[in-house]
Specification:
This protein is an alpha+beta fold and about 100 residues long. It has helices at about 10-25, 30-45, 95, and strands spanning about 5, 50-55, 60-65, 70-75, 80-90. It has one domain (about 5-95): 2-Layer Sandwich (YaeB-like fold), CATH 3.30.2310.20. A hairpin with a 5-residue loop joins strand 3 (about 60-65) and strand 4 (about 70-75).
């Protein structure tokens, strides 16, 4: 089954802020972060049910970003995958729970 990907504006802002922060540290690193985030989202869309389930209703799952300490939180619906948060691993879970 093919699901439609929806990336909420808050999640886009999360990755934009993180990419800008990394880019200030080293040129090109922000682009690398963005590339890794896209790759992780593709993995989530291709096979969402293999990723760790954090909540049953709504069904919230998490995929990890390679090379960078970020977690992507998404909701699985019958026809959609909704990415609603992209957070640094050091951030507390309450940050994504407020957005569900």
């Amino acid at each position: 089954m093919s699901r439609r990907l929806i990336v909420r504006p808050e999640a886009e802002a999360d990755v934009t802020d993180a990419a800008l922060w990394y880019e200030e540290r080293e040129a090109g690193l922000g682009v690398e972060l963005t590339t890794e985030v896209r790759s992780a989202i593709r993995r989530a869309v291709q096979n969402p049910l293999i990723h760790l389930r954090l909540r049953k209703q709504p069904e919230v799952r998490r995929v990890l970003v390679r090379r960078f300490p970020y977690r992507i939180f998404f909701v699985v619906r019958e026809e959609d995958i909704i990415v609603f948060a992209i957070l640094h691993a050091a951030r507390h879970d309450r940050h994504w729970r407020r957005r569900v």
